[in-house]
Amino acid sequence: MSITGKELAAMLGLSESAVSLALNDKPGVSRATRQRVIEAAKQYGFDFSSKTVTAVGKKGTICFLIYKKSGAVVSDTPFFSTLTDGISMGCRRRRYDCVVRYLYEDDDIADQIYTLGNSRFSGIILLATEIDENTLKSFAQVDIPMVVLDAYFEKLDFNFILINNIQGAYMATEYLIKKRRTQPGYLRSDYWISNFDQRADGFYKAIRAGGMSTAKSQVLRLTPSQEGAYEDMKRLLATGVKPADCYFADNDLIAFGAMMALKESGYRIPEDVAVVGFDDIPACEYMNPPLSTVVVPKLFMGETAAMRVAQLIDGVNAQPLKIEVSTKLVKRRSV
């Protein structure tokens, strides 16, 4: 791929004539500008004997910034590792390096944002799964192209890429109603994230569409991890809670833990209790029985984030967008 003087000038924020003078060692530019152009040329492998030169290097670096509030949801799970793979693939295809950085709730957010704003990153993909609206608002100060991944807030003017959570939860709940002909219960996370709020919207919309009262759905609050959900469900059953005929769960890990506790208490799945999860992590196929769940195209979602931030870096379609990635229901033997 050949790069013209015009492209080099755009990359450095200089005029074409200034780049030409610097590359040809002509007077008319400062020593600092000349040095900057020469260093950039060397960095990208330019052939100085040619007017049009070949670039073999990267276009820049995109930072994948992972915000962790507690780690209750964002952890080393197949969901987030696959999402990261998608981002890395998308960056490579567009000739960007990708580096991963972590930002924790107890860090000095203002200081971290200042550091980001003064970094040499070409763009930022912010994993905002656990972030709240006020914290995200602070990132508006960062004058670097940025995409917010896996969260959405109506009042904020960012480029968002997220799961269509309402659609997925609606499909799962509607499926339970049609298959079981009864009112589904809800295995709801006791930890808040915006994704779970949207899944609750989808669940209750399907309940109302089925002609049922939302107040009559049994809601059990469980920790959003397999171990935590197992312990919580086990404790609830021990206190005499009678399970509903079927449940929609906020994520697969909640579904796994609840199913384990139910089976230990003598309930058969799906004969006595049916369960549908959300995310379709690999272990769903190996559960006993395999878990029906909502499929999220995680690789595609990560690649889309990389594509969008690359567009913003290039100044293409700078209008803030909300991109929702559609889901689908995979039916297995847990229903």
How many domains, as an integer? 3
Provide the CATH architecture of the largest domain: 3-Layer(aba) Sandwich
How helical, in percent, are the residues? Answer: 25-40%
| The CATH top-level class label of the largest domain | Alpha Beta
Order of helices and strands: EHHHEEHEHEHEEHEHEHEHEEHEE
Main sheet: strands, sense, barrel: 6 strands, parallel
Kindly report how far apart the N and C termini lie: 54 Å
CATH topology title of the largest domain: Rossmann fold
Oligomeric category: single chain
Strand order of the largest sheet: 4-3-5-6-7-13
Task: Describe the protein in words.
By secondary structure, the chain is an alpha/beta fold. It has 3 domains: 2-54, 434 Repressor (Amino-terminal Domain) (Orthogonal Bundle), CATH 1.10.260; 60-164 and 299-327, Rossmann fold (3-Layer(aba) Sandwich); 165-295, Rossmann fold (3-Layer(aba) Sandwich). The protein is 40% helix and 19% strand. It contains 11 helices and 14 strands. The protein has a 6-stranded parallel beta sheet with strand order 4-3-5-6-7-13, covered by helices on one side. A 4-stranded parallel beta sheet has the order 9-8-10-11, sandwiched between helices. Strands 1-2 form a two-stranded antiparallel sheet. Helix 9 packs parallel to helix 10 (252-264). The model is unreliable at 51-56 (pLDDT under 50).
